[in-house]
Amino acid sequence: MAQNYTQRVFVNGKWEDRYPKTVAAQVETDPQHRFLTDGQIAAFEAKEDAASKNKPGGYAGLDEEGRLPLSLIPSLLEHNKGYYATPEALREAHPSAIAGDFAVVGSTDTVWIWDADGEPAGWIDSATRGAVISVNGKTGAVAITWDDLEVPDAALDAKGVVQLSSATDSEDETTAATPKAVKAVMDEVKGRAKITVGDIAPTDAQDGDWWFDTSTPDVS
User: Fold this and answer.
1) pTM confidence score
2) What is the pLDDT of residues 38-61, one digit of tens each?
3) Looking at the 3D structure of the chain, how many domains does it have?
């Protein structure tokens, strides 16, 4: 067996050790006793304590897919249902939800929220501020047609829908004259004799015009 030596020198009346006192090869190590460099010590000190995992003031652990578990995600993020191109796509993906759920819809470029208090409950565009739930029973991106508007017909004593007419010989009181009808009447009038009632004879009279002279003394 090889013999190991430790160098000593006699100084001031006693023996002092001189380097190398002991080399690493002379030290027996076990699981409880290891050599560490300064870099290794710094790295260990920078590591999180496993006991602090998923604890307040500690660190959040990832699941087997490298994502945060839902239990660690704030409730606001849990309500985010993602992005959908159209309201129809959103409704198809999430036919039901809970109060507070929301999603972004591309076709409207707005945030849609789940209205749990609606009759019935459903997705609504937050840009409407919740004021309009449906139109004539329609929801979503509603396209209004004339048949969707229940407007009564107009009458002499009530407002409403009136149809236009270009007729110049009608006695109908449910239609309105067009500019074409008015022009036709004016053209007809201009082609007829002018009738004047007054005390003074018209100065622009033409053949065939009538003048009812009111200056004539009453002889009756």
Assistant:
1) 0.30
2) 888 888 888 888 888 878 887 777
3) 3
